[in-house]
Amino acid sequence: MLENLLAAMEGAVRAIDAHGGRDLILVHHNDADGLSSGAVTMTAFERCGFKVSRFSLEKPYPQVLERIFAESGRIVVFADFAGRIAPLIAAMNRGRNLVVILDHHPALPSNDPTVLNLDGELFGLKGDRDISASATCYLFAETLLGSRGLKADDLAHLGALGAIGDGFFVDGALAGVNRSVAEKAARAGRMRSEAREGGEAYTIRLGGWDYEAGRLCTALDTAGGVGYYDGGPDRGIGICLAGLDAEAERYVDGLQATRDRIFAEEIAGLKERLITTPHLQWFDLEERFRPMGIKMVGVFCTMIKDSPLLDGEKYLAGFQRIPDEVPGFGPIAFGSTKISMRVSKGLTERIRAGRMPGLDSFLPRATEELGGFVDACHGLSAATTVRIGQERELIERIEKVLLERMASYG
Predict the structure, then answer these.
(1) Angle CA(306)–CA(309)–CA(310) in degrees, nearest 5?
(2) What residues have CB less than 8 Å from 76, skipping those under 6 apart?
(3) Parallel, antiparallel, or unpaired: how do β-strands 315-321 and 280-284 relate?
(4) 104: helix, coil or strand?
(5) pTM: predicted TM-score of the whole model, two decimal places
């Protein structure tokens, strides 16, 4: 459990020290949890004298990994993804770089001593309840700084922020490691909680100002998702470290207006575009969400999953085509589309009660059968990628795998 994860983190710090390099590549996700994770990890390494080159990705695509691992002798850190693809990373890396993975999604272990997978799921923790990526990164920062006689208490609020952004609550409140990190933040004067109907409300202190945590998470998701191709992740890191100044507020407000307009246009035509199968309802955005990042198909699915336009008994899926470029890496020919899946409140209750299959029990397998890319999937939210033109075939594979899974549920 947690003790074993912390012991593994101590081993990773020793490996970093033994490596001897001071240049480090940090690759993190672009949502609230990923940006919080990036801010915590970057700050901790910089305090220890490392030179950090930071990149934000919507997914750790193999095409991007190939570029990262084309060189050798470096330290590479992944935050808020890559737990499941540790074996792929090991195969690409071929022992040439020291790799540290700080994730919370369902994961696969690494048997390569140069690829250290510090994913809480491998240590008996639930990544969609007990520990977020930001909390994982905070624990690592605490371990790293502690090895130098330094404190990480003033970063704990960022460790909790990502859990709030991902909505990891039990009875409306943070639980497990996420709660422990939030309590450290409260003792450091950087966070407070108040009881409310149905749970707790959280306030985060940044740059000398107090912010409602949900507002911060919305700003981070908007900057990183809507503004992904417009420097939004860098703005998000700035918000994590200094708060929402007037310029950041204007930037986020402009992005929200863009998002609201595009979402409204899509909802207006959703009924005509929605396709239903025995257990799914799905749509294909193609390129209608440009210039927003591909995270936004998942955000859109989350927004509409309980809409009266939809059947609450069916799983929801949406496709969005991936632009052939990645900020910081230039043009990359993906030729791919992303599928995001979500579930209604009713299905959520049945999945949590063990009466229906979670998304992670069938979407990865269906995607892999088509040669697609699988990384971060949870039971209630999941996303993978396949080639453009495979959308209907993937839906058919999902139905097939899902039927097999449902047979075991009686």
Answers:
(1) 55
(2) 24, 25, 27, 68, 69, 93, 97, 98, 99, 100
(3) parallel
(4) coil
(5) 0.91
CA–CA distance, 181 with 251 (Å, rounded to integer): 30
Sequence-ordered list of residues with C-beta below 8 angstroms from that of 276, at least 6 positions apart, any chain = 282, 311, 314
Domains of the chain: 2-201 (3.90.1640.30), 211-266 (no CATH), 270-407 (3.10.310.40)
Alpha carbon distance 230, 223 (integer Å): 9
> What are the pLDDT tens digits along the chain (410 aa)?
899 999 999 999 999 999 999 999 999 999 999 999 999 999 999 999 999 999 999 999 999 999 999 999 999 999 999 999 999 999 999 999 999 999 999 899 999 999 999 999 999 999 889 999 999 999 999 999 999 999 999 999 999 999 999 988 999 999 999 999 999 999 999 999 999 988 999 999 998 899 999 999 999 999 999 999 999 999 999 999 999 999 999 999 999 999 999 999 999 999 999 999 999 999 999 999 999 999 999 999 999 999 999 999 999 999 999 999 999 999 999 999 999 999 999 999 999 899 999 999 999 999 999 999 998 788 999 999 999 999 999 999 999 999 999 888 76
